[in-house]
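To make this tangible, we now present a fold written out as tokens:
***
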Amino acid sequence: MTSATTRYGDFENLREQAIALRREGLSLRQIRDRLKINNNDILNRLVKGEPPPDWTKRPNAKDALRARARELRLKGMTYDRIQLELGCSKSSISLWVRDLPKPERTRTREEASAIARKGWEVTLQRREEARQRTKQEAAGEIGTMTDRELFLLGVAPYWAEGTKSKPYRRQERITFINSDPDMIKLFLDWLRLLGVEDERLRFYVHIHETADVGAAERFWAEIVGRDTASFNKTSLKKHNPKTNRQNTKEEYRGCLVIQVRQSAELYRRVEGWWCGIVGAARSADRKNRT
């Protein structure tokens, strides 16, 4: 018997209890709480060979779609019509109904193309709805945030996006640049948590010279709650005709640069905090981390 199992006493006795509870229809979580087993590896070994109860199995949503697709195919519908009806991809429909007879073509090529386009629009809409549901559910999992969580969270974006001192160019100061308004707001919240006064902050816009510079300056000024007159001179990126720019739409606002004056000491602390986070992550007990 391994040292891991001896901590839970008689392994075989525990296994008998776990199997009995499993056969009563309890989930792994319920068995864990009932027997006070906090190690997932031990818990899985205790119930090894016992199938989970039916109520814990997630239903396969595609089973119903497959059955419906076959039903529609037998009624003579084409892949395009089935896609329009169900909102799933034609590749999936093809797999589900390929053993069924093909319906006779009764539409012109133009009519079939119109149906195909409409079916694809329905598919895209349902995908977008599913994407938004997932994002909303994930956002709800975060809940409230403590000051310590905000403190740790703010270090990583800076070390990813902020300027850093190099051995060949010592420049220890806090400068952060980003095109995401929410990232800018988070960074400002983080600075306030660290006690950085607003008077020490300097802002300027970095944007392509062919964009609407004035609109970009007004946009970022509103994001940070400042007047455009308080911004430093905008940095313009020269146009290179050889490049194929993708950020040419009206919503393109460039990036906002935030500089913190007299920030050498803060920069050194940020570098130290990042080293501490990396070290803590490497030494943490990943298996039993809470």
Observations:
- The first strand starts at residue 174 and ends at 178.
- The chain has a mean pLDDT of 84.
- The CA atoms of residues 49 and 105 lie 52 Å apart.
